[in-house]
Design a protein that fits this description.
alpha/beta, UDP-N-acetylmuramoyl-L-alanine:D-glutamate ligase, four-stranded mixed β-sheet, 26% strand
Length: 331
């Protein structure tokens, strides 16, 4: 990493001054923690004696939470239901200083919730509550004016697709058009089950399993592919300048159109929970890239951030000081 300590401090402060917009599926993440001492007499499952319950902004809102907890500013565009979970999530995002001017609510829509039951620091079961939704052309058109006004004011845009319906091709096409018009970077965290055309975006960040599934689906391959093959095929498919492939314990691989690929090994010291690590990676890659650094350094920063967050329980975030300490160890 070609940074001196004072340059790093300057970069982190520039990142904290960034303003990002996140579009995607908003969720409420619930965590039920407890102790496990016996098996249920009713079925071969553990009995969890509940000791603590917590909830956080999840899905695309967790990307935003990574941004605001770091000290930068974030606006979100997404959909909530007019229910108790929606009110709770809205209140949490307001408390985290999100800009909610592009958030929409819809009668009859059920706010997406993921509840994880954890005993002895291990996830025992996850309970999902969600309803189907499709962002129609009319819905997207209703967002256009407000979306353009917001794109003008931010330094970068993230599309966080959890495949729950908010991210549609019409919305992607509109966002690409607006980002090109106003010269903003646009990064994407895609979903395997929502195969969209990402041409025109700046960078796409799939994880390894998602990338392989996409390639097998699009190209009909059955053979095992090397990481280099995966990156080259994704660039052929999407025609984007950058693809950041996250690989868990394998670190991250950045593919650059017209340039060499770049590998950064994992920076995780301990892994307690990988929930939300992809959200952290896309948030910090975009923050760094928007702050003006080259893509390889943005990938390094994203890798350090993800390495910190997997050492925490739940969909956690990191502070400026935590990231600074991790990066300074490698300067």
């Amino acid at each position: 990493m070609n940074l001196k300590s004072h340059d790093l401090d300057s970069l982190l402060e520039r990142m904290r001054k960034m303003r990002l917009l996140v579009l995607g599926d908003l969720m409420l993440d619930r965590f039920i923690y407890g102790s496990v001492s016996r098996i249920s007499p009713e079925a071969p499952v553990p009995v969890v004696n509940v000791e603590m319950e917590l909830s956080y902004p999840g899905g695309a809102a967790n990307v935003g939470r990574n941004i605001t907890d770091f000290g930068a500013k974030c606006a979100v565009a997404g959909l909530l239901g007019e229910d108790l979970a929606g009110k709770e999530l809205s209140a949490q995002m307001k408390h985290a200083n999100f800009d909610l001017s592009l958030m929409r609510s819809q009668k009859g829509f059920q706010t997406i919730q993921k509840t994880r039951v954890i005993g002895r620091n291990q996830q025992i079961v996850r309970v999902d509550r969600e309803a189907s939704f499709t962002a129609t052309k009319d819905f997207v058109n209703s967002l256009e004016k407000a979306l353009e006004m917001k794109v003008k004011t931010v330094d970068g845009v993230i599309v966080e697709d959890y495949g729950k319906g908010f991210i549609s091709q019409p919305l992607v096409d509109l966002t690409v058009k607006l980002c090109k018009k106003h010269k903003k970077i646009l990064t994407v965290d895609p979903n395997t089950h929502n195969p969209l055309n990402w041409r025109g975006v700046t960078a796409v960040k799939p994880n390894r399993s998602e990338a392989i599934a996409i390639i097998h689906s699009k190209f009909g391959y059955s053979r095992e592919l090397s990481i280099q093959d995966v990156g080259e095929k994704l660039q052929e498919l999407w025609k984007v300048p950058y693809i950041l492939l996250t690989m868990g314990e394998g670190g991250m691989q950045l593919f650059q159109r017209g340039g060499k690929s770049y590998h950064t090994p994992t920076k995780a010291k301990e892994v307690f929970d990988v929930s939300g690590a992809g959200d952290t990676a896309i948030a910090f890659f975009t923050l760094a890239f928007a702050a003006g650094v080259e893509a390889t350094l943005a990938a390094e920063i994203a890798n350090h951030a993800a390495g910190i967050v997997v050492g925490k329980l739940g969909t956690a975030t990191i502070s400026r000081d935590e990231l600074a300490a991790s990066l300074k160890n490698h300067v």
